Amino acid sequence: MSAAYSEVVETARQYYNSKDADNFYFHVWGGEDIHIGLYEDDEEPIADASARTVRHMAESVSHLNTGSQVLDLGAGYGGSARHLARVYSCHVTALNLSETENKRNRVMNAEQGFSETIKVADGSFEDIPAEDQSFDLAWSQDAILHSGHRKRVMDEVDRILKPGGEFIFTDPMQADDCPAGVLKPVLDRIHLDSLGSFAFYRAQAQRLGWQEIGVADLTHQLVKHYTRVRQELTKRREGLVGIVSDEYMARMIQGLGHWIDAGDNGYLAWGVLHFRKPE
């Protein structure tokens, strides 16, 4: 295990660096955007819904322009960073722990002309490699769950944000009233012992003195997304032979079912959380 990473983060790093995971997320789970989408119908392509999440979040943020410095925490393949650089001409640091994903990110940045405006950094959001008060916006999509020290992540975000800077993020969470023990199948699959919650993140924001700009509960989209991913994987399973191992696909189909069941039972939560650091 790398000395720089906690055990939980290192587990996530090894997972996302694996050939199976890399090919699954790139070919099935949306391609450039590997996070939960905002669906307008139950048959919509995953990539279209995922891109809509990025647009929705970006349109919620104040004053993005050519001078803005943005940090994307857990940037994956960098789709969000490229959208922000393309539409708002801002500079983005795409921080991500998977060197495999980062390699794809750098290639796509070069192909699309963003090598100068997007910096891809290997690292963990539990120890952000950046100076204090150096970013106008912190951004994250469905990544903070992989930390075993989410309070520390929030502290790090507070440290790197400029006064008046904003933090907008999504995260798969447990419901505020989730009964104990019911998420074990979900947590075991992703090697975690807990998830965040709306109440947890709101409490952390209050502790740090952040202003709540908006918290939108969009949990129904989590169930739609995992359902669509499972449908797509099942449909394309035969064609993915030789790209993703059958053992991995079988485990993923089962694991996605756990997320869908937990969501249908009201045990999970998901949405967009948006806060501002005081001036």
Describe what this molecule looks like in 3D.
The protein has one domain: 3-Layer(aba) Sandwich (Rossmann fold), CATH 3.40.50.150. 44% of the residues lie in helices and 18% in strands. It contains ten helices and nine strands. The protein has a seven-stranded mixed β-sheet with strand order 3-2-1-4-5-9-7, with helices on both faces. β1 (69-73), α4 (79-88) and β2 form a beta-alpha-beta unit. The radius of gyration is 18 Å and the shape is globular.
Give short descriptive properties of this protein.
single chain; 279 residues; alpha/beta; Rossmann fold; seven-stranded mixed β-sheet; two-stranded antiparallel sheet; 10 helices
Helix content: 40-55%
Number of strands: 9
Q: Tell me what portion of residues adopts beta-strand conformation.
A: 15-25%
Number of helix segments? 10
The Rg value, from CA coordinates, equals 18 Å
Given helix and strand content, the structural type is alpha/beta
CATH homologous superfamily assignment: Vaccinia Virus protein VP39
Terminal residue distance: 39 Å
Broad shape = globular
- Count of discrete structural domains: 1
CATH class identity: Alpha Beta
The CATH architecture can be given as 3-Layer(aba) Sandwich
Strand order of the largest sheet: 3-2-1-4-5-9-7
**What is the overall pLDDT average?**
94
Largest sheet: 7 strands, mixed
The ordered string of helix (H) and strand (E) elements is: HHHEHEHEEHEEHHEHHEE
CATH topology: Rossmann fold
Low-confidence stretches: none
